[in-house]
Model the fold of this input.
Amino acid sequence: MWGELTEAFHKAFPGAGAPKCFRAPGRVNLIGEHTDYNGLPVLPMTLAQEIRIAVAPRRDGRVLLRNADAAFAPMEFVNSDTLSPSAPGSWDNYAKAAVAGINHALAPAGRPGFCMLAESDLPSGAGLSSSSALVVACALAYLHALELELEQDVPRLKLAAMLAEAEHFVGTRGGGMDQAVILAGAAGRACKIDFFPLRVESVPLPDDCEVVVCDSTAKAEKSGAARALYNMNPRLCHLGCALARAKLSEEFGEDVQVERLGDLWYGPLCLTTREAESLFKRAVPEGPVPLAEIAELLGQKPEKVASQWLEEVPIVKGGYDILARLRHQAGEYRRVETARDALMAGDSTALGRLMNESHASCRDNLGISTPELDRLTETALEAGALGARLTGAGFGGATVNLVPADRVERFVATVERRYYGEYLGRVGNAPIFTAHTSPGAGPA
Ligand code: NG1
Done:
């Protein structure tokens, strides 16, 4: 595998020096969706599917990118302090994000370039983190060009936090789950991740169940149309946080420092989930709230609210259901903590139930499910899964399913027939696989 990649590298870059190889795995999130950007916990695991790269440094600052998959055209840019994004969807943006992020955070003395050949068996647009795996792989390539070693010179968690911020370069307002599990995940274990500061706890996987991933086949390319849809939830959560903060200030008679929703639990107030839920109900009206009413609650002009909090989110006349988003955060926080305990106790039935509740909340409170994802999760439960939910950003992509080990074969056959065959009318191999973990990203 690595020999072939090295050989292909020499063909792609004749005359370049001997390359070094690195890998960055994908991930599947068991539970804790759309919580990371609020500083609330998540519970993902690495996948065996990964991005593999061969890299050789260049002194002239040029970054030359090649991909074994012809769908990704050759790309090139020059490393500088003023990198600007290429057109949305262009894959060099992920390399630019990594290079710009490292330049900003580590302020290295030089601005070297590199030649990089990438190959991948990780499906893209499936909610399995192919974009962050690419950012991490490119960061490892650039660290190599800078003669910096992962761990020795740059600790894994420091790089993960840095790259979570760096990936905003491509325009998505994601959190830090993906970069953290890709860099700090471990073989055979799941990771409970907390943020600000980043902490990773290794959690056992069930020994009586398999984690099975089913691709709904509806693509959710966050570099394209799904980006604005994805960003809507981080933006509305941020706005919900401002409303909660306004209510607290009113009640306490002084400003309370709450930068993100997670601060309600972890900040000076240390609220319980019940207290947070009660605050949300006091701070935000039920159902869709029009922009004018939100502005009034914040004591600001609607235009100011739109430019400060909504940015690219389209103005919806009927308003936004902010309370539903906050309800999801409180419920999902509780579910992640309980799921962690269930994994520690080997209670797969409890984990399955929490996964089902998480899917319902993603569908009803966040609006990130699709008819395909709903049908696929329903079919999975009928086929014997203990839990089934969409995984990742949503709006398409894959589901994650907890299936008793002795029922996997029947599960796969039933989902294949009922979802892929009868519902999608598709013939041939179904995109279903049993998830296997792998070590965190690093040298091959
Ligand atoms: P995926 O599924 O890889 O697009 C995105 C965000 C995560 C997280 C999840 C939803 C990025 C890079 N990733 O993941 O931070 O918010 O959605 O839980 O934006």
Summary: The chain has 14 helices and twelve strands.
